[in-house]
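Narrative summary of target 7.
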Amino acid sequence: MLQMQDKWGRRRWITFKQSPTKNFAYKSDLVMLVSLALAEIGKEKVTQNDMEIVTALLLKEDKSKMEKDLKLTPAWIRNIIKENINGNCK
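Modeled conformation, tokenized:
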């Protein structure tokens, strides 16, 4: 845990959490952020609105990078991303 002070004198805390090495192996920053964000939200709490936002962003991403990076994501995240992207590509 790291304590910092902002320019107004307020104390802020930053907590560093352990993370698997594969979380740093992504080629695409966007896929990494999406994967970590969905994992933080949780499988049961991801809404259709969340997925619409994610899908709109990922449709702009390089497909070859995204395919490689999806192999690093948890299976449930990979499945919902693929379902939404394939549904929007038709």
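The chain has one domain: 20-89.
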